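Quick review question:
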């Protein structure tokens, strides 16, 4: 009887301590997420430039001066997009891969010296992501790659270095992606148990993908989403994505049926007219942005897990500057109101917050102001 009583008490105690531990682990992710309040995506540097990962370019495209500037402008973290191919080369000890990792180490170190947090964002090309659709073997290889990367960075401050499993995985099946993400998290945890993992939804990691995601069976995880809605506005003229946005020019934000009337008239195709009319009818404005971001908070509360917006931004070439700033402001306010950290896409490319020309880097004061940062250079 006494033994039974003791067994019940000790089972109760261990259940309690497990519950306390789980709570602490969730709290840890929340504390860590505070280092990711307002960030910037250092794009096209260690990813998306497959033709050129030479040391020369890696040292000149974005520099240590840029890292210092990023800090001065008021950002608290950088999300470094990192291609998978050169990492595979590094794993196989190929000279180019080894050099790539050495340069990445140098950049991570420079950021940490500035007290900037760093997201190691695995940002492969589509063809790498497609392989993951083909059975278990490529998934196991992906896990092995992550294990090497996590081990490599495991001695770095876990308060400031984060591991993001994969940018926009393009996996059509959320359930399968969930399994992949869980498996890879296990591989990471085995070698870097202190570090916070960033996990996202399937497909393009949009808010709708986050809604379908169940938390993975690990603690100390932050859940990410990307938000470029309304796409007709943020991606007007973009050539690499939904063909519907490619011909768009001068799309207004906020949108009303009245203020899209001219755009509508200029649309030669029925498909284009449909797209534009729907955009006007949707009446995108601060209120709608806010109502959308509210779902991120709802997901976070439902699952008792912190969320983070890893990408949002507006393609510069065809958007009105003031409208671009307005949307960024509306997004930033909606996120900050809910204590959701964010990283704008991107630092210096065609969504950028700075312009680099003839050796001079000019921060965009209007955009910095929209981001609530506008600090003196
Ligand atoms: C993609 C970039 C793209 C950006 C905005 C990113 O996740 O990797 O290629 O420019 O989203 O569309």
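Suggested answer, residue by residue:
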């Amino acid at each position: 009887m006494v033994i039974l009583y003791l067994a019940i008490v000790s089972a109760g105690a261990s259940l309690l301590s497990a519950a306390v531990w789980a709570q602490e682990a969730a709290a840890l992710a929340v504390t860590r997420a505070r280092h990711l309040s307002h960030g910037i995506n250092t794009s096209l540097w260690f990813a998306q430039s497959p033709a050129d990962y030479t040391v020369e370019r890696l040292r000149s495209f974005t520099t240590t001066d840029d890292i210092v500037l990023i800090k001065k402008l008021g950002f608290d973290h950088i999300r470094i997009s990192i291609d998978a191919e050169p990492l595979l080369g590094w794993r196989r000890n190929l000279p180019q891969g080894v050099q790539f990792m050495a340069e990445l180490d140098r950049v991570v170190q420079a950021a940490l010296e500035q007290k900037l947090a760093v997201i190691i964002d695995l940002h492969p090309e589509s063809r790498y992501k497609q392989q993951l659709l083909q059975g278990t073997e490529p998934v196991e290889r992906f896990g092995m790659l992550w294990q090497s990367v996590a081990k490599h960075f495991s001695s770095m401050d876990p308060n400031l270095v984060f591991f993001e499993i994969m940018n926009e995985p393009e996996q059509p099946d959320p359930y399968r992606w969930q399994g992949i993400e869980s498996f890879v998290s296990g591989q990471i945890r085995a070698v870097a148990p202190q570090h916070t993992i960033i996990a996202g939804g399937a497909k393009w990691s949009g808010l709708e993908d986050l809604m379908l995601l169940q938390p993975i069976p690990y603690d100390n995880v932050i859940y990410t989403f990307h938000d470029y809605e309304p796409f007709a506005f943020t991606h007007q003229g973009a050539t690499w994505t939904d063909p519907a946005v490619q011909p768009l020019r001068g799309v207004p934000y906020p949108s009303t049926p009245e203020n899209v009337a001219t755009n509508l008239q200029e649309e030669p195709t029925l498909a284009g007219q449909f797209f534009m009319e729907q955009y006007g009818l949707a009446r995108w404005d601060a209120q709608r942005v806010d109502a959308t971001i509210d779902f991120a908070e709802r997901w976070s509360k439902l699952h008792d897990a912190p969320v983070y917006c890893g990408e949002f931004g507006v393609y510069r070439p065809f958007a009105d500057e003031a409208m671009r700033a307005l949307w960024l402001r509306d997004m930033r306010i909606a996120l900050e109101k809910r204590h959701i950290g964010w990283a704008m896409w991107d630092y210096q490319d065609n969504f950028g917050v700075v312009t680099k020309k003839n050796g001079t880097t000019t921060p965009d004061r209007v955009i910095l102001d929209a981001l609530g940062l506008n600090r003196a250079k």
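Why it works: Residues 2-33 form the longest helix (32 residues). Strands lie at 38-46, 77-82, 117-122, 161-164, 197-200, 221-226, 307-311, 341-344, 354-357, 360-363.
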